[in-house]
Amino acid sequence: MGSGFFSQSNPPPLEQEEGGTPPGNVVVQEPTGVDGATSSFYGRGASPAVQAFEEDARQAAEAAAASAAAAAASAAEAATTAVPAGGSTGQVLTKLSAADYDTYWAVGGGGGGGAGVWGSITGTLSSQTDLQTALDLKLATANFTWTNLAGKPTTFTPSAHNHVIADVTGLQTALDGKQTAGSYAASVHNHVIADVTGLQTALDDKVNTTHIGATGAAHGNASTSIAGFMSAADKTKLDALATVATTGSAADLTGNLAVARLGGGTGASATTFWRGDGTWATPAGGGGGSGTVTSVSVTTANGVSGSVATATTTPAITLTLGAITPSSVAASGTVTGSNLSGTNTGDQTITLTGDVTGSGTGSFATTIAANAVTNTMLAGGIANAKLTNSSVTVNGTAIALGASGTITANTTNSLTAGSGLSGTAFNGSAALTWTLATAYGDTVNPYGSKTANFVLAAPNGTAGVPTFRALVAADVPTLNQNTTGSAATLTTSRSITITGDVSWTVSFNGSGNVSAAGTIANSAVTLAKMADVATGTVFYRKTAATGAPEVQTLATLKTDLGLTGTNSGDQTITLTGDVTGSGTGSFAATLANSGVTAGTYRSVTVNAKGLVTGATAKEVPGVQTVTSASTVTPNADTNDVVCIQAQAVALTLAAPSGTASDGEKLVIRIKDNGTTRTINWNGVYVAAGAALPAATTAGKWHHVGFIYNTNAAAWLCVAAVVQA
């Protein structure tokens, strides 16, 4: 509704506002006054006539609302009774649905127009042809929804319309009680500046009295004691500072900072520097003194000698290394060279693994693992000398295993041949030969060839001289096994056991071959028990894959260890590269200068060896530069500034990658390509003291500063500025 001036002859239209105000209600729209608060139709200070008109309109609206409320209450009351209001002669009460009280008055009677009232119906529904046809044409109540309603408009656009005074109950009466048009009594009222033509322009030409200072109304430049305007020179300086703040480039700063600006210059001199703790100090090791070197010489010591040319002017030093025999050599890295020999004094740990284990720096005990010595390792046999029990003793005389010897009886006794034997008596003093008597046994030489399967046995069934004959059943006693085959198993299983340095046991019942692993006792296989080896032999496995140890030479070991040359004990070791030095024992080493002057720095560059290769007194921030991307992910591990330039699409700032530290700072700098772009921020960015910009300002740099808060797990926005 507009806010123009209405009279009795030109009443304001009463509109149905968008949002669906039902007919019968009066909508009174009040415009907003100049101060932002709701006021009357005509602003603050309307005339009494206008105020009366507004009051009558308000009362009419309230009356209409009360009437509508009463009608709604009446309808609600009717809806909760068993019989709805109304009805006329001939109408019947009809149920509209299964819900309680959902009834209405319908026209009764049969035939003609209108709905008929059915009497008694017999038969099935299908036999009532006219009723079935009528029902088929109806839409089920459950399906009668807004969606099923055909021909309805898709939208309902509110339209402005007018009402005559008679449409509003009591409005004409209220208007009749108002003053006649043109006879309004004067009243006190207010106007805003815009109501007075030319007033604002006139005021703009006036001088604000608060601007009149010590320099008058001429707006003079400010000084250290007088407030005023900024001079052009000061503006140039301010712009330079702004440039530094927005670009972060030290190139925008020229000239030197006055010494007096640093601690008042107290303590400043040609030999001091300004420290990070805000004081002037002398560099460590320096005193700012001066002097003159009159002579340089070299003192011979520890095998190092030298000479100095022009010792009193420009000394040139020549060093010569002699025979250096240190008691030890200490090195922080790998020592290489030739003639390496001697004894490890305990500073190198040697560890053996595998079948033989042990660890130490000199001579140390080793252990052969259980089941580690195989038959393959013992190829070639073990010499008697390598065995602990390598001989037997007979009558006090030791006889080596595998050797021969003569056994002499302590007491000589006679040995006389008995029945069936022939020969001389034996007393140990001479060799003796015994033979069977010619008449012993059968008449044939008992050691001659005999018939197969014959045995020497007594006569079958009687006593007598044994002869070679075939066995008969009577010769074999009763056994627990048949006499035609071999025994399948032993009646009682037996264990076969070996003890001593090698232990082994197995149960055997004769049913088949058996085997079991034997165990060599710890410390049983000594070096003495192993086969002899050549001088300079070492044992280790050179062939790839697991297997038996192999015999290798010292030369092979030296090659496998990458050792070259021969250290005779007095070999000079020379270190080159980042660490330099030379000597044969313990000698001083020098770490090469990195090229960076000694001092205190806020930012350093370190190479892969951990050496400082560059440094600056100013901390250099890590800058991540992006040219127009739909999504940008800052890297909190490496970057302090994210510069997004020439942004040509809507921008989404994703959560920073990496691990942020509490209090870590991040500056995001954004500039579009001349067209405003929306900015979407991940939830990890939270406004705190400054709002997050929702869009860029065309062609301007935006600087948004964040500080990470570990407790909140968020990047808090503490500053957001846009380029002027």
Gyration radius, rounded:
62 Å
Estimated structural class: alpha+beta
Q: How many β strands by DSSP?
A: 34
Q: Determine the number of helices (DSSP H or I, runs of at least 4 residues).
A: 6
End-to-end separation: 41 Å
Query: In which order are the strands of the major sheet placed?
Result: 26-28-30-33-34-32
Mean pLDDT: 74
> How would you describe the shape?
flat
**Biggest sheet descriptor:** 6 strands, mixed
Please, what is the oligomeric state? single chain
Percent helix among the residues? 10-25%
**What low-confidence regions span 5 or more consecutive residues with pLDDT below 50?**
1-47, 109-119
- Please report which band the strand proportion falls in: under 5%, 5-15%, 15-25%, 25-35%, 35-45% or over 45%: 15-25%
Walk me through this protein's architecture.
With 724 residues, this protein is an alpha+beta fold. 10% of the residues lie in helices and 20% in strands. The chain has six helices and 34 strands. The strands form 13 sheets. Strands 26-28-30-33-34-32 form a six-stranded mixed sheet, with no helix packed on it. It has a three-stranded antiparallel sheet with strand order 7-8-9, with no helix packed on it. It has a three-stranded antiparallel sheet with strand order 16-17-18, with no helix packed on it. A hairpin with a 5-residue loop joins strand 24 (603-606) and strand 25. The radius of gyration is 62 Å and the shape is flat. The model is unreliable at 1-47 and 109-119 (pLDDT under 50).
